[in-house]
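Tutorial, part two.
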Amino acid sequence: MPTPTRPSWWGGVLRTLVLPAVVALLTAGGTAFALHRPWDAAPAGTLDGIGIALLAAGPLALVFRRANRVAALAVAAGAVVAYLGLGYPPAGPTGLAFAVALVSAVAAGHHHRALAVVGAAAATLLGWLLLTGRAVPWSATGPLLAWIAVLFAAGLLWRVRRERIEQARLAAEQERHRRIGEERLRIAQELHDVLGHHVSLINVQAGVALFLMDDDPEQARTALIEIKRASRDLLREMRSTLGVLRGVDEAAPRLPTPGLDRLDALLDEARAAGLPVRRDTTGEPRPLPTGTDLAAYRIVQESLTNTRRHAGAATAVVALTYSADSLELRIDDDGRGPAEGVADGTGLTGMRERARSVGGTLEAGPGPSGGFRVLATLPAGRVDR
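Running the prediction step on this input gives:
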């Protein structure tokens, strides 16, 4: 059974009404207690309807503080000035609503206008008392100014805290977007490598099958079997990668993340597509960090794909050199090499980004004896497995 949820406006109504209701209850209860203290024989004063209305005006103004905080502060201050100016007893938390409105206005960034409202209220009350010939409580001026300073400081601190929280939220949001962008780039590189490799292989095998269909049906059958296998692998890898984009993994990948442990299978695919490839290994092969392992595999894969597509090469050599803290990959072919003035394509750019992403470097260009060379140096610290 789905859990019933409240309407979205319900939370806003609660936030708007709870604080004014609490202030109203504290004001009413505190004033009543101060006027009718049990230990005093006679009450400290009485309130009529106008006095009660003035006490209620402050909490009522807080209901509308979200619409205009300065106006709410002005109403609350006016109610306090009228209450004291009319001679009602200043017993209990008479200015509680005014204090809450002042902190709220300063926290919202209206400190200049809030200061103007406070100054106008103080001047009005002072003039009222002087015009009516009543005594001005000068002794209360110091504590009153101190309380107003404290309220201003509380509002400013609240505002600073909210700004820091908002800055932290924005920074976290930007970091999340940055990581999403990096992940999308990584997935795009994965798709480019997977599609380029398998589609190139399928294209070559399809050409072989068409060429040998009549003269050598058995060899054509072998090429068609290779096309079926390559297309199956392509669909499996695409389903796994696109599942990440959808956020839904329909089925757990049956193969681990590709690495150099699958290099021999990759070279067999290239040979089956008509490109003889030799593997040379120098140094002691060892487990590599996952990122380096994947980057090395994809660089070799993309290099051989480019060789089959564009180089017209007869042979290729994949050389791996293991040292204490690095792995050097060298892929040479005897093809025609790059045409003059041709800029790097997406494949070379992607390989450079892969090498850079794990802290390595990659250079690509004409080989020393003709053809084309891809030379990558990747960090390869030891990994305990």
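The CA atoms of residues 74 and 117 lie 6 Å apart. In part three we will examine how such features are distributed along the chain.
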